Amino acid sequence: MSASVTMVGIFSHLDVASVGGRRVRIEARHCVLAASGIENPRLLLASRDIHPNGIGNHHDRVGRYLMDHAAARVGRIPTEQMEVLARLFGFFGVRHKGRAHMFMHGLALTPEVQERERLLNAAVYFSTERAPDDPWDALKRLLLRRSGTVRRDLLSVAAGSGLLVKGVGMKMLADGRMPRALKDLVINTAIRLSPNMVANEFQDRGLPRKLAGLRIEAICEQAPNPDSRVTLGLRRDRFGVPIARIDWRIEVAERRTLLRLAEISRDALAGAGLPVPVLEDWAAQRRPEDIVIIDMAHTLGTTRMSSDARKGVVNADCRVHGLPNLHVSGGSVFPTSGHANPTLMILAVATRLADHLNRTLD
Ligand SMILES: Cc1cc2nc3c(=O)[nH]c(=O)nc-3n(C[C@H](O)[C@H](O)[C@H](O)COP(=O)(O)OP(=O)(O)OC[C@H]3O[C@@H](n4cnc5c(N)ncnc54)[C@H](O)[C@@H]3O)c2cc1C
Fold first, then answer.
1. Which residues line ligand 1 (CB under 6 A)?
2. Of the candidates 218, 225, 282, which has an alpha carbon nearest to the alpha carbon of residue 249?
3. Which of 240, 234, 248 is nearest to 300 (CA)?
4. In angstroms, what is the span from residue 319 Cα to ligand 1's centroid?
5. pLDDT per residue over 324-353, tens digit each?
6. pTM metric for this prediction
7. Domains and CATH numbers, the chain
């Protein structure tokens, strides 16, 4: 898909192409671009009817400030000590409008600590670690003939037969023949009574697993960085539109925050008389440059919101600066990323945009 605007600076139409080869032009009085944190800047950059640098890109801001959440494993709680923490920091169920929803506890840096130590926003949460002799994994290896240690895998399957039988029960719950209302009742009750169990089943696709410990995972905000960005590459897709090129940067601030978060979490647990985690080597040896950081598929910031057109792409109404009838929706409008999963905030801002359009469009 590509979008173009007329020379007077008003969005006029979309040129749409399908994979089946159909091409149509959609003319509209208004457009909301909602194609994701990578595609939103890509489509704006590739639409060059009005400005050689792309729509909304007079100040070279489109695609810049690419953020995700920097995630890393910071430590683990050994098996023999995990129960108390699994109960305290596991999932919990909340009932709302007849349905139960699952939430997870975690530990976040306080604003005071962030300010004092000049840290980014960040939090840790706890996730379960599967044992190497988990019977389902052993069974899978045996069935797929990928077992390097057949005798050990057979022993694991035999020793874990209780878990395997329980797994069959879980599979029955997933059976399409069980009435939906009955399934909802069972699942909602289970969420309320034992959210941790439900969360584990959910994470492991309905199979009860043998656990080895609790992992401590961290999620960290990224400082907005103009050099972290989406640009257009040289290759083109089947419609002739250049493919996005991603240059995602992780800076010292993120690494420093993750290190201090690991240390502060360890000290907080110890101070509360709870099991003390074994930190990853990089944290124990204070080597933030060695942290293995992964993204969370939370692509944010690439058409960021700012009241100043020189600092952002859209204004507070999510409208592209300089164009009266083109808006952007999605994580790309975030000016900063915080540490929390973004979807609820994306929906809140999208709902606010919908209300605004309802009020202003005749
Ligand atoms: C595996 C996974 C797990 C996740 N888990 C969580 C979670 O637990 N909590 C959370 O908050 N977030 C989670 N996220 C992140 C969350 O999905 C995204 O942050 C959110 O969906 C982004 O919303 P968006 O509107 O910006 O883009 P999207 O939701 O990606 O919507 C963009 C839409 O535009 C369409 N599109 C793209 N390009 C074009 C084009 N050229 N033409 C036409 N249509 C196009 C896409 O098909 C898509 O439907 C997860 C992401 C992944 C991948």
1. 1, 34-37, 39, 297-298, 330-331, 341-343, 346
2. 225
3. 248
4. 20
5. 999 999 999 999 999 999 999 999 999 999
6. 0.81
7. 2-67+299-360 (3.50.50.60), 70-219 (no CATH)
